[in-house]
Design brief:
31% helix, single chain, Aminopeptidase, 8-stranded mixed beta sheet, 175 residues
Length: 175
Amino acid sequence: MEYAAVMIPFDTARLHLRPLAADDAALYVALYTDPAVMAHVAAPMTGEAARRSFEKACARNRESPPRWQRWAIRARGSGEAVGLCGLFRDADREDSAEIGVMLLPAWQGRGVAAEVIAAFAARAFDPAAPWPLARLWARHAAGNTPMGRVLARLGFRPIPSDIDDERCWELSRPG
């Protein structure tokens, strides 16, 4: 499968999503070094560690097909940086992937995560898609109840986690 067939930019009502590119370095570093953004993810990175991580993320996007996809989220029209989305194919199950969204603080609480996850679910569950999935799953820190509400509203159902301080959810392809 060709890289280009999997990672085609697309739009939602308010957003433009495209594969992570060189001009997204500042956005990536800003997210991964911000203690407030990382509060429910992991310890914030140093600037240098975030830059190295960005280079690795871009390299993984160039794999064919990219098993770990990173997407930049921009506001439609203005191009303003909003955040990142990751879609990570499970190593042991070809038809399953984890989805994650990180947003700049100014964009949190505005329905962006729900819009992004719903758009990716629609694309991933389309049988005609170049990389169709049967299952999409997400996880978040136990204290991140807003994300839990978003996932529940989108139809994800809770599933067990092996980590005490983590909540996991899954959504299966309709039908």
